[in-house]
Amino acid sequence: MPKVIGIDLGTTNSCVAIMDGSQARVIENSEGARTTPSIVAFTDDERLVGQSAKRQAVTNSENTLFAIKRLIGRRYDDPVTAKDKDMVPYK
After folding, report:
1. Per-residue pLDDT at 91 exceeds 90
2. Is domain 5-85 annotated with CATH 3.40.50.720?
């Protein structure tokens, strides 16, 4: 049987599962959780994903991306994108 992976890219949290025989099995992240916050952050030294990105969002707000799912596939000059640009701290 071919290998199958499913990704639930959520606005708030994301989840990954694989087919294990006839059953879907959710893969835990590095912190042991079955869901991961849909947040990415960039610092001078590293890229952070999930809970570690969420923890530093207040101190690094301009480089912490969240609620980005709604912008996937939209052009930069789309009215929805323009509206969102005024509501978030990142560029």
Report:
1. no
2. no
